[in-house]
């Protein structure tokens, strides 16, 4: 399939097999706090905001370092998915319900390695806020 001429930011990460599938990763210049049921479950000064265009323009997602997660996340055994832009994801719950709350790419593709090992939360499962001054 021939692709039309596309001029894109050099700061985007592209799926090498489909240049129209890409993401932009930017550091968040504020503290990111994540809440579930009114309880803070994560706080980070090193979060990344990922905006992705694939089959749709997806809402931005925050990715946080594991050390900034306050509560224990329980891996969901056997639950994985594949993204042609990021790699294979594994999933987490907060309790024995196996309700998915977060995911990670432990072995992201080399071209997406900036998100490798970071934790992302489902926006409909948590409340996320940015606090503090922009740098």
UniProtKB/TrEMBL annotation:
<feature type="domain" description="DUF427">
    <location>
        <begin position="32"/>
        <end position="124"/>
    </location>
</feature>
<dbReference type="InterPro" id="IPR038694">
    <property type="entry name" value="DUF427_sf"/>
</dbReference>
<protein>
    <submittedName>
        <fullName>DUF427 domain-containing protein</fullName>
    </submittedName>
</protein>
<dbReference type="Pfam" id="PF04248">
    <property type="entry name" value="NTP_transf_9"/>
</dbReference>
<dbReference type="InterPro" id="IPR007361">
    <property type="entry name" value="DUF427"/>
</dbReference>
């Amino acid at each position: 399939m021939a692709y039309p001429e596309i001029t894109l930011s050099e700061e985007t990460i592209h799926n090498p097999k489909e240049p129209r599938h890409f993401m932009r990763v930017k550091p968040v210049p504020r503290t990111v706090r994540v809440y579930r049921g009114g309880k803070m479950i994560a706080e980070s000064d090193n979060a990344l905001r990922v905006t992705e265009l694939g089959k749709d323009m997806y809402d931005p997602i925050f990715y946080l370092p594991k050390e900034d997660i306050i509560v224990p996340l329980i891996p969901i055994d056997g639950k994985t998915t594949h993204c042609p832009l990021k790699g294979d994801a594994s999933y987490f719950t907060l309790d024995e319900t196996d309700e998915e709350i977060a995911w990670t790419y432990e072995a992201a593709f080399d071209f997406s390695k900036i998100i490798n090992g970071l934790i992302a939360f489902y926006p409909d499962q948590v409340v996320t806020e940015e606090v503090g001054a922009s740098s």
